[in-house]
Amino acid sequence: CYVKKVQYFIFIFDSACPFNTLAAEVTSKKISALLNKTVTCKHVECAQQSNAYDCGIFLIFFAEEITTFYKKYGSFHERLAQTPPPSSYRTQLLEVINKEASHGK
User: Fold this and answer.
1) Distance (Å, rounded) from C-alpha 86 to C-alpha 61?
2) 32 CB contacts (<8 Å, ≥6 apart)?
3) Which one of 58, 82, 83, 104 has the fewest CB atoms closer than 10 angstroms to its CB?
4) Is residue 19 over pLDDT 80?
5) pLDDT of residue 98
6) Please, are residues 36 and 2 in contact by the beta-carbon 8 Å criterion?
């Protein structure tokens, strides 16, 4: 006899915690209903933004952190760097965007 229990998780990386907590939990309930499966929210400790406009920067930063951490450790241990992206991060991204945009001219 072989029994395998499958668990479904939504990992929440909220750089403006607890601002988005309710929305994340409502979304997980909708996904749970859609899949007809129990979905558990896991809030991941992560760096917090100090303004209302850097969410996109943090999204990109977290995506890089998650993939880097996962490649190195095979998991992100439900905790990411508590240090926010360096202040130069926005400038570096803008330079990349401008450089790529100039190739399309």
Assistant:
1) 10
2) 8, 38, 39
3) 104
4) yes
5) 93
6) no
